[in-house]
Amino acid sequence: MAEANWYVVHTYSGYESKVKNNLLNTVKNRRLEDQIIDVLVPMQDVVEIKNGARKQASKKMFPGYVLINMIMNDDTWYVVRNTRGVTGFVGPGSKPVPLSPAEVESLVKGAEVVCDYNEGDLVTVINGVWEGTVGAIKAINEGKQTVTINVEVFGRETPVDIGFADIRKMD
User: According to the CATH classification, is domain 5-112 in 3.30.70.940?
Assistant: First the structure.
């Protein structure tokens, strides 16, 4: 028997969940559970910090796309391709290209913190060694999710990296 692979399907924007539900219903009705194994709308947990308030939210990692773990054959291709809201498989022409194992693994990520800080903003450190310290943001590193502020150590200004979650913007 053929091996199941992950494929990417393009959908109308905002129809990702509807496509997932429609496809799962069709799979159940046609008894294709052994051929179409899983349907995912990749979501990412994000912590948004706005005006010092932390809020947990889920966002679609790839708006307009759905991932399907399936055994590719004429029947499964037809079912997926003719699901309402699906515009086609991702790949050249009409030939779907499966994701590599490395690509599938890279989709598994932790929570990301999104902030509304800007360079020059005055912040207070709320956790850690520098708790209670006030400083202006000198640099922002989105990749490491840190900001650099200057703190006074032995009478000299010294740059220190502090995590997004450990600071609060001053009004």
Answer: yes
